[in-house]
Design a protein that fits this description.
This protein is an alpha/beta fold. It folds into 3 domains: 117 residues, DNAb Helicase, Chain A; 222 residues, Rossmann fold (3-Layer(aba) Sandwich); 80 residues, Arc Repressor Mutant, subunit A. It has 15 helices and 14 strands. The strands form 3 sheets. The protein has a 9-stranded mixed beta sheet, sandwiched between helices. A 3-stranded antiparallel beta sheet has the order 12-14-13. It has a two-stranded antiparallel sheet with strand order 1-2. Strand 13 and strand 14 form a beta hairpin. The C terminus is likely disordered.
Length: 464
C-alpha cells in the first residue's frame, strides 16, 4: 500500500509526516503498528492524534477504493494550483509565449504523474525474496474448477439454461452445497442480474432454493440491473464500494454482453478492455468472478470446444477457467467440458440433464455423443428384437455400451433408449445395478433379472 503513495498525495502536513515515518519503518524492516509509529513521530504530530487515526482509517480490504479517492483529490488539488500558475504566467507580458507554454507543459506532466493510473503498479520484487514468501493457496470455491480470485466463463448456446446454471452456482457456493457432485467451499456471493425482470429473477431463485432443499440463503446478495445502462467501466466504479462492504468470495455477472457499452465483442482491444475492468474488481476484492457468454451459431460438434465461444479469442485466453456446455445427442442434455484450466489438472467431461429447475449430472450418458446434423438414417426404424441382438445371453452389458452398439447401426440414441425401456417394461430385458465406491452405480442390462441379496439361485439358474 505504501508503495502506491507519495507524501505529496496528502494535503495535511501531519499526514505527510506520518507517511514518512511509516516508510522509514518499512525500509528498516520494523513492524508497521501504532506503537512503533508513535515512538518515531517528531513534534509535527500530536501523539493522541496519531493514536486515534487507527479508528479513522479504512480497512485493508477497502484500500483500493480509498486509494482511488485519495489520488482523485490529489490530482484535483494540483489542478487548482496549476490554474493559479496559468493565470500568473499568462498575465506576465514580459515572458515569451513559448516560454509560458513550456512551463505549463511541465506542470501538466507533474499533475499527470500524481494520477492513480501512473502510481498503482506494485513494486518490482527480488526473485529469492519472492520465492521465499509464504503465499497462501486460495480456496477452491468449486472443486477442480474455480479458485477464489480467478475468472471463469460459462459458454452455452442460446436458451441452454445458462442463467439457471449461474443461479444454481451462486446458491451452491454461498451455502457450501455441492454443485453437480462437485464439492464447494462456502463464500459470500453477489449475483449481478443484468437480464431478467425482477419477478422472473425471484421466481428462478425460489425454485432453485426449493429444489436444492435450502431453507435459508441469507447473505446472498442480488443486484437487479435489467433496463439500466451498465457500461462495465461505470459499473465497476459504482459496484466497488458495495462489494467491499460485503466481503464477497464470488461475484457473478449474467450475462457479460450487457456491460459491453459501445464495445465490440469481436475486437481484441475492446474485449481486453472489458477483461481489464473485471480484473480490477478481482484485484480490489480478492473474489472470484464468473460470467456467462454465448456460443457461435450452428451445430457445435464439429468444432473444438474452445472455438465454440462467441466473440474474440481474447475471451478464452484471458480467463482461468472456461466451462463449455454443448448440446448432447440426448434431448435436453449438455456435455460439460473445461478445455480452459490454468490452475487445475485436466477436467473429465460429463453430461448435464435438464430437470427443471436444475441441471443434474447424468453419468449414464457418454459426454462424447454431441448433437450432430441430422442424417438420412437418424429416423431408421428399429424393433426391440434388433436391440436385444446386442445383449449377451449369459452376462449383462453396460447400458451406455448397449446404446452405443445400437447407435452404430444408424439408430438415433433417443430411439435406442426408448426401445430398451420398452423391452424392460415387457420383461424381455432387465436392469442391473452394480455399486461403485465414490461414484454413481454402474447401470447394466441383461436378459435375466438381477440376483437379489439372499437369493440361493444365481442369475444363470434364473435364466434357465
Amino acid at each position: 500500500m505504501l508503495g502506491q503513495l507519495v507524501a505529496g498525495d496528502f494535503h495535511d502536513l501531519r499526514h505527510q509526516s506520518i507517511f514518512g515515518v511509516l516508510v522509514n519503518l518499512r525500509d528498516n524492516g520494523d513492524e508497521l503498528n501504532t506503537l512503533n509509529l508513535i515512538k518515531c513521530l517528531n513534534g509535527n504530530v500530536e501523539k493522541p492524534y496519531a493514536a486515534n487515526l487507527v479508528n479513522e482509517a479504512p480497512s485493508p480490504l477497502q484500500f483500493p477504493v480509498y486509494l482511488e479517492a485519495l489520488k482523485d483529490m490529489t490530482v484535483r488539488r494540483n489542478l487548482r494550483v496549476m490554474s493559479q500558475e496559468i493565470l500568473k504566467h499568462s498575465s506576465d507580458k514580459s515572458q515569451p509565449i513559448e516560454s509560458i507554454l513550456t512551463k505549463l507543459q511541465g506542470e501538466v506532466q507533474k499533475v499527470s504523474q500524481g494520477s492513480l493510473l501512473n502510481s498503482s503498479l506494485p513494486p518490482i520484487e527480488e526473485f529469492e525474496e519472492f520465492t521465499a514468501l509464504d503465499i497462501p493457496k486460495p480456496p477452491e470455491l468449486i472443486k477442480g474448477l474455480l479458485h477464489q480470485g480467478s475468472k471463469m466463463l460459462i459458454s452455452g448456446g442460446s436458451k441452454t439454461y445458462k442463467t439457471w446454471v449461474l443461479i444454481d452456482m451462486a446458491v451452491s457456493v454461498h451455502t457450501g452445497t455441492p454443485l453437480w457432485g462437485l464439492q464447494t467451499t462456502q463464500a459470500n456471493v453477489l449475483y449481478v442480474n443484468l437480464e431478467l425482470d425482477r419477478y422472473f429473477a425471484q421466481y428462478r431463485c425460489k425454485e432453485i432454493r426449493r429444489a436444492k432443499n435450502i431453507p435459508n440463503a441469507k447473505g446472498l446478495r442480488i443486484w437487479n440491473l435489467r433496463s439500466y445502462s451498465c457500461d462495465i467501466s461505470e459499473l465497476r466504479k459504482r459496484l466497488m464500494p458495495e462489494i467491499l462492504k460485503g466481503d464477497y468470495g464470488l461475484i457473478v455477472f449474467d450475462p457479460i454482453y450487457k456491460v459491453y457499452g459501445g464495445r465490440d465483442e469481436n475486437s481484441v482491444s475492446d474485449v481486453a478492455e472489458i477483461m481489464n475492468e473485471l480484473e480490477q474488481i478481482i484485484n480490489a476484492t480478492g473474489s472470484a468472478l464468473v460470467y456467462a457468454t454465448h456460443q457461435t451459431k450452428g451445430i457445435q460438434s464439429g468444432k473444438e470446444s474452445i472455438d465454440r465461444i462467441s466473440g474474440s479469442g481474447a475471451f478464452a485466453r484471458d480467463v482461468d477457467t472456461g466451462l463449455i456446455l454443448t448440446a448432447h445427442d440426448e434431448e435436453g442434455c449438455y456435455t460439460a467440458e473445461a478445455p480452459i484450466l490454468r490452475n487445475f489438472k485436466p477436467f473429465e467431461p460429463f453430461v448435464l440433464r435438464w430437470e427443471f429447475p436444475l441441471m443434474v449430472r447424468d453419468d449414464e450418458l457418454d459426454p462424447k455423443h454431441l448433437k450432430e446434423k441430422k442424417n438420412p438414417n437418424s429416423g431408421k426404424p428399429c424393433t426391440v428384437e434388433q436391440v436385444m441382438a446386442h445383449v449377451p445371453l449369459n452376462e449383462p452389458i453396460e447400458k451406455n455400451l448397449l446404446i452405443g452398439k445400437v447407435r452404430a447401426t444408424g439408430i438415433g440414441v433417443n430411439r435406442a433408449r426408448e426401445l430398451i425401456n420398452l423391452a424392460v417394461s415387457e420383461k424381455q430385458l432387465f436392469p442391473h445395478s452394480v455399486k461403485r465406491s465414490g461414484t454413481n452405480d454402474l447401470q447394466q442390462i441383461a436378459r435375466y433379472p438381477q440376483k437379489q441379496q439372499g437369493d440361493l439361485h444365481d442369475s444363470h439358474d434364473l435364466h434357465a
